[in-house]
Structure formats: structure tokens, C-alpha cells
Amino acid sequence: MAKGLRFRTARDLFSACPAVARDMKAAPTDQPSIEFCRALLAGRVPEEAITFCAYLLPERAAVWWAHECLSNLAELLGDRDLELLALVRDWVGEPGNLDHRAAVAEAVEVPPVTPVSWIALAAGWRDSGPVIDQAAGFPTAHAVSAGILAGLARVSLADRFAVLSAFVEMGIQMAEMEAQQQSADAY
């Protein structure tokens, strides 16, 4: 399955997305991407597996993954974050819908200070294209990673690694499903 991923190896991902090196300390290897991600999870800084997944996934899928991760933390989120989650859900479901795009654009005018505001920012960056990405200095994956990690910071220490592991596995599954979909679309 891993051979159909966007980036076959960690080195491929780092070469294609140099910004990942600003977000991670781990050095790329020639390991297949999924193996590298799982090694990060088992390593000294397991949170880097979240960052790696954010870059591994296509942008829209990364925003959806972040939505799903933070939806699992709904009891730890405030009312504004829950509203933003609904906006992101609607945007991912119908990215071309002008109402959803307008709502996300309005939401990203506020600086990201909560987990889901980062995800809304990621959706807005992805929607607005490279001009905003360059102005912000970071790709969409940076905001996805920041949002998920900010959500994880709210999880109790006793539960944090289990939640982190579940999020990474969800990201890996989404990457594999995206690879399958792209393979099917190629035929």
C-alpha cells in the first residue's frame, strides 16, 4: 500500500516540502514514509509524527484529518472552537460552496489562538492558494500540525500518548486511503 503514497520515503517528503524541516528536528531517511512516521511515534519526540502526517497528507485530507482529531477532543474545546469545527466540516464537505468559503475566510481573519482556529486557518490558506501561504511563511500543513498539537496539549498527561498514537494511526490510514483513491483514479 505504501508505494502509492504521495511521498514514497521520508527523504522524498523533505525534498518536496522543505518547510517540514522548520517544523521538525528529525532528519529524513530513506525509510518508507509510513515506517518513518511510526518510528517518529516510537521515538524521543513522538509529536513529530503528527507534523510528518500533516505534510504527508494532501492539503484537503490534512484539514479533514485535523477536524477528525479535534472532534475527538470536543469536550476539551470551547464554544468558538466547536463553531469553527462545524465551519471546517462544511468546508471540507463542499469546498466549492461559496457560503462555506466565505465563512472560513471570515474565520481566518482572527489570529489563531485555539486548536480549531489553526485548522480554520489551514482551510483558509488552502482555499486562498499560494499567495497567503507565502505571506504567512508556512504551508497549510504547518497550521494543521499546530492545531492538532494545541489540542493534544489539552489532553491529560496520563492519556496524551494514547491519544497521540490514535491520531497518528488515523493520519496513516488517511494517507493510505488517499493513495488507494489516487491509484483507482489513475485507471
Radius of gyration: 16 Å
Q: What ranges have pLDDT less than 50 throughout 5 or more consecutive residues?
A: 129-136
Number of strands: 0
State the major sheet: none
Let me know the average pLDDT.
Answer: 85
Q: How far do the termini sit from each other?
A: 16 Å
Oligomeric grouping of the chains: single chain
- The assigned structural class equals mainly alpha
Salient structural properties:
187 residues, mainly alpha, 11 helices, 71% helix
Word description of this protein:
By secondary structure, the protein is mainly alpha-helical. The chain has eleven helices and no strands. The longest helix has 30 residues, at 157-186. Mean pLDDT is 85; it is low at 129-136.
Offer a quick outline of the entry.
With 187 residues, this protein is mostly helical.
SSE inventory with pairings:
Blueprint: H1 10-16, H2 20-23, H3 33-42, H4 48-56, H5 59-71, H6 79-93, H7 98-107, H8 115-128, H9 130-136, H10 140-152, H11 157-186
